[in-house]
Amino acid sequence: EVQLVESGGGLVQAGGSLRLACAAPGFTFDEYSIGWIRQAPGKEREGVSCISSMDDRTYYADSVKGRFTISSDKAKNTVYLQMNGLKPEDTAVYYCNAEKWPTTYWGQGTQVTVSS
Fold first, then answer.
1. pLDDT bucket at 81, cuts 50 / 70 / 90
2. Choosing a second label site near 99 at 20 to 30 A (CA), which of 4, 22, 26, 41?
3. How far does Cα 27 stand from its chain's mean position?
4. What count of other Cβ atoms lies within 10 Å of the Cβ of residue 110?
5. Per-residue model confidence as pLDDT tens digits over 28-48
6. Of 24, 26, 22, 19, whose CA–CA distance to 6 is shortest?
7. What distance in Å separates the CA atoms of residue 26 and residue 3, rounded to the nearest whole number?
8. Phi, psi angle pair for 89, to nearest 5°
9. Cα torsion at 73, 74, 78, 79 (round to 10°)?
């Protein structure tokens, strides 16, 4: 079973920055789309951003455009989410997933808390 590992979450003040990382020991992201999804208490999961490992095309939710940047380091087999200008409404558990139809692998999530 492939297990993705997220890191980089934490507590930050509004306006601050965090960088999340998603790694998969023993697994390569080739031909997968790697995404970041978040879930805040009492809310539905929201797709935040994703990147294609084949052509590096990216997607961002409107709520994070201009503030978040997704990138990949193929040598390290790691995908990053640089989060700048954080807002209290960004508070959530952030999950990464790796998707290549019909398979999706998930990580356990990392908590991001933004204080006002």
1. very high
2. 41
3. 17
4. 21
5. 888 899 999 999 999 999 999
6. 22
7. 9
8. -70, -5
9. 60
Q: Mean pLDDT over residues 15-35, rounded? A: 93
Q: Do residues 1 and 106 make contact, with C-beta atoms less than 8 angstroms apart?
A: no
| Beta bridge mates, 13 | 115
At 8, the amino acid letter reads G
Of 87, 101, 91, the C-alpha closest to 33 is 101
Cα–Cα distance for residue pair 20/1, rounded to 1 Å? 22
Which residue in 31, 26, 38 sits closest to 103, CA to CA? 31
